[in-house]
Amino acid sequence: MSGRMSEEPSGANLEGETPVVEDVVETDEATITDDAELERTLGLAGGLAIGIGTMIGAGIFVFPGLAGAEVGTAATASFAIGGFIALLVALPTSELATAMPKSGGGYYFISRGLGTLAGTVVGLSLWLGLVFATAFYLVGLGYYALDALAEIGIVVGASSGVIVSALAVLFGIGFTVLNVTGTENAAKLQNGIVALLLSMLTVFLAFGLLDAFGFVDAGTPPGEAANVWEVVPIMSVAALVFTSYLGFAQVATVAGEMKQPGRNLPLAMIGSVVIVTVMYVLTIFVSTSVFTQDALAAAGETAMVEVGRQLLGTAGALVIIAGGLLATMSSANASILSTSRAIYGVSKDALLPREASRINLKYGTPHVALGMAGGPVIALAATRQVQLLAEVASFLHLIMYGLMCVALLAIRRDEPEWYDPDFQVPGGAVIPVVGALASFGLIAFMNLRSILVGSGVILVTVGWYLYYARDVRLKGVL
Amino acid sequence: MTRVLVPVEVLEGKTVSPGLMNLLGTVDVTVLGYHVLPEQTPPDQARLQYEDRALDALEDLSEEFRTAGGAADYRLAFTHDREQTLKRIADEIDARAIGISGMTGDVDRILVSLSGNVTADRILAFVEELVGDRDIGVTLFSATEADATEGQLDSAAERLRTAGIDVRTELATDGAPFGALMNAAPGHDAIVLGENAPSIRSLVFGDEADRVASASVGPVLVVRADETLDGDQ
Question: Which residue of B has its CA nearest to A338?
Answer without folding.
Answer: B40
